[in-house]
Write a structure and sequence with these properties.
This protein is α/β, with parallel strands linked by helices and 316 residues long. It has helices at 2-12, 32-36, 82-95, 120-124, 128-146, 163-169, 197-205, 207-216, 222-227, 243-255, 260-273, 278-292, 296-307, and strands at residues 28-30, 54-59, 66-71, 103-108, 113-115, 152-156, 159-161, 173-177, 181-183, 220-221, 233-235. The strands form 2 sheets. A 7-stranded mixed beta sheet has the order 1-2-3-4-6-8-11, with helices on both faces. The radius of gyration is 20 Å and the shape is globular. 41% of the residues are buried. The model is unreliable at 10-46 (pLDDT under 50).
């Protein structure tokens, strides 16, 4: 069983093959507080250029290792269109291979909106045969994000409907402002959630309640979302409109001191283990643990403990 689990892990993620990769033009580095809290210096036009519809920021200083993906389609309430999905896939492809990335935060650059779902104006112009292809691409892009090897946090400072909530459900952790609104509302349009919602929502809040929310197309606020386990943290919105992002950033900083390899295999062990029986899950854990034993970081952790100092992990 352990050998089978180890084979499953190798097929899923090749951690030994991970190498540092930066794509030209992809990253925008801001220093200090401006990088951590860009809301004070961002501006919003009626439209964003296509290349700006997803902003990728590698934070610096005390936030080094945190990458922020910011949705930026103010004229369309951050609705998911072909271009945005293509940019998401490109960004995720770079992030999954970058050993310097420790945590990814998914947020909105547009006040009051996380993501309103699929771009229905674009959808209305599609032939029925194109719709199926688009939904498949959306499902694939969101699944790629779910499979990022590092922790991911969705910061919901506004509305997250349909595909927007599916995007958040693909993240490991969700943080929301109490005023945020979220729901899978596709049945109102005589369709169903098609980018993972019918699978990830039941796994998050339970089958019966997930059915109720999808059948009714109900929208809940941050407080109710917290009470049913849809989100991990709820915060009161602030004047800047980025309270959930600030909470997500504080949470991400808690992850930074930990061993990078350990974080990646811990996520893998949890994700894979939740899809199998307990015996197989324990074998997966054993195989994952084995990947940490030969690392330099493990030895550094023991030395730091012995010498009563903070460890200096390098992800090796």
């Amino acid at each position: 069983m352990a050998a089978a689990a180890a084979g499953l892990l190798r097929a899923t993620v090749g951690l030994a093959a991970v190498s540092s990769l930066h794509r030209p033009g992809l990253e925008l580095r801001w220093a200090g507080a401006a990088a951590a809290f860009p809301s004070a210096r961002r501006s919003y036009g009626s439209e964003a250029r296509e290349e700006e519809e997803l902003r990728v920021r590698y934070l610096d200083d005390e936030h080094k290792g945190i990458v922020v993906l910011g949705l930026n389609r103010p004229h369309a309430k951050n609705a998911l269109n072909k271009n945005l999905l293509k940019m998401m896939s490109k960004a995720v492809d770079a992030l999954k291979s970058d050993k310097k990335v420790r945590t990814v935060i998914f947020r909105s650059e547009v006040p009051g909106i996380f993501c309103a779902g699929a771009d229905l104006k674009e959808r209305a112009k599609m032939h029925s045969s194109e719709v199926s292809s688009f939904v498949s691409k959306a499902r694939a892009a969101i699944n790629e994000m779910a499979n990022l090897p590092v922790p991911t946090i969705a910061a919901l400072d506004g509305i997250a409907l349909g595909g927007g909530l599916e995007l958040a459900l693909a993240c490991d952790i969700r943080v929301a402002a109490s005023s945020a609104k979220m729901g899978l509302v596709e049945t109102k349009l005589a369709i169903i959630p098609g980018a993972g919602g019918t699978q990830r929502l039941p796994r998050t809040i339970g089958v019966s309640l997930a059915k109720e929310l999808i059948f009714s197309a109900r929208v809940v606020d941050g407080e109710e979302a917290k009470s049913i386990g849809l989100i991990s943290h709820v915060v009161q919105q602030n004047e800047a409109g980025d309270a959930a992002y600030r909470r997500a950033l504080a949470l991400a900083r808690e992850f930074l001191p930990q061993g990078p390899v350990a974080m990646r295999v811990a996520k893998l062990a949890i994700n894979q283990g939740m899809e199998v029986d307990l015996v197989t899950g324990l074998a997966i854990e054993e195989a994952c643990y084995a990947q940490t034993i030969p690392t330099k970081d493990r030895i550094e952790g023991l030395l730091a403990f012995k010498e009563k100092r903070p460890p200096h992990y390098k992800g090796e």
